[in-house]
Each structure stands twice: as C-alpha cells, then as structure tokens.
Design a protein that fits this description.
Elements: H1 2-20, H2 32-39, H3 43-55, E1 59-62, E2 66-69, H4 88-112, H5 115-124, H6 139-147, H7 151-167, H8 177-192, H9 196-222
Antiparallel strand pairs: 1-2
Helix pairs in contact: 1-3, 2-3, 4-6, 4-7, 4-8, 4-9, 5-6, 6-7, 8-9
Length: about 230
C-alpha cells in the first residue's frame, strides 16, 4: 500500500513539474535519474510512475530517446485505459450516453458554427466511406463536438468514443457506410443552416440507427442460429 501511495504521489509531482515549467506536448522531460534525485526516490519508482502516466497519454516514453510530454496533458476528461467494455450491456450504455449527449452538441454546433468548423465537419463526412473493413472511429463525431466550441464536451465525447472503439475491436459489426455517410451529410446540412432543432433531431436518429446496428450484430453473435 505504501508503494502504491508513493507512485501516486510521484505521478502528481511529475505532472506538477510539467505544468510549473510550462512544458507542452512533445517537449522532453528530465531523465528518470534526475527526476529520482529531485524527488528523493529510486529510479524504478520514477519509471513506474511514468508508465502509469503513459497509459493515459499524459507522457510518452520513446525507447532510446527519453520521456516527452503527452498529447493529453491539458485534457480534463480521460477514459479508463484498463476498462474493457466488451459485453452487450456496456455497449448499450455507451450508446445511451452518446444519445443523451451528442444531439445537444449538434444543436450547439448549429448555433455557434463558423466557416473553419464547417469545413472540417464537411471533410469529416467522408470518413464513413474511407475504410472498407474497419469500424468507423468517430472522426465525424469528434469534428461535430469541436464545432460546438466547447472543449469539455469535446473531451467527454472523445473519451466515450475511445471506449466505444475498444468495445468493437473484436465485434463483427458492419455498418451501412452509405447510410452512415448520408446521415452525416444531413447533420452537416442542419448545422450549416443554423437549425439547432433539426441538427439535434438528425443526430439523435443517426445514433439510434448506429445503436440498433451494433446491438443487432451483438445479438446475432450470441445466437449462432439467428440467420438459420
């Protein structure tokens, strides 16, 4: 237990050092030996703390090069990298969370849209057609959240999508990509016209369709005679 508290305290000390020195993603941290000397701990303890921080992308360990500030250092909302939402109930809950959150995000995007956000969102609609076999990774939905101008909402959605992608890594879900693309375009059209009610409605309908497709595939996986 003492070791666990030490690693936790050390992790916070390392993060405090990053923020106090104004380090940004990609900048190098002092070597592990120097950090150990600074905090009065052993090098293995520092390395264990760094490994834990790496799990949430707060730092990046580059073999033979050192430790660097990770891309998530300024994020307020992070997903749990050790959680595996592989069962049907977990997948349903993730979709229900998205259905509760994303339509409001779309409505906000329609209210505060700007040209740059609309251009990124328009490019994001093509993502559904880019890959033939991979599950969509939510690029369009991330751009929709960014278009809302609310960083906290964007981070929350990215965390949900990270869990969502892991849940489907071993799934046999295959979406209708043409329909997916068409629904994305309808959402973009509502956002571009500045119609928050339509943007909200179309986003909710789109997510319900995705949920039905995903849970339908899960049900068939559980029932080998479903197509018999």
């Amino acid at each position: 237990m003492k070791t666990e508290r030490l690693i936790e305290t050390l992790s916070h000390e390392i993060l405090s050092t990053i923020r106090t020195n104004g380090l940004v993603p990609g900048q190098a941290l002092p070597p592990a030996r120097e950090l150990a000397s600074r905090f009065g701990v052993t090098v293995p303890s520092v390395r264990e703390a760094l490994r834990r921080l790496e799990a949430t992308d707060l730092v990046e360990l580059r073999h033979g090069s050192g430790t660097y500030v990770g891309a998530s250092i300024h994020r307020r909302i992070l997903d749990n990298p050790y959680y595996d939402p592989a069962d049907r109930d977990s997948i349903a809950e993730l979709f229900d969370a998205r259905i509760a959150i994303e339509p409001g995000i779309a409505a906000l995007a329609a209210q505060v849209r700007d040209d740059d956000a609309l251009n990124r969102l328009t490019r994001g609609t093509d993502h559904a057609l880019e890959h033939e076999t991979e599950v969509p990774v939510g690029h369009f939905h991330v751009e929709l959240a960014r278009a809302s101008g609310n960083r906290a909402l964007c981070e929350l959605l990215e965390a949900l999508l990270s869990l969502y992608r892991r849940a489907h890594q071993t799934s046999r879900v295959r979406y209708d990509r043409v329909q997916d693309h068409r629904e994305h375009c309808e959402i973009v059209d509502a956002v571009r016209r500045g119609d928050p009610f339509e943007a909200e409605h179309r986003t909710k309908r789109h997510l319900i369709n995705l949920k039905n497709a995903a849970l339908g595939a899960e049900e068939n996986d559980d029932n080998p005679h479903a197509d018999a």
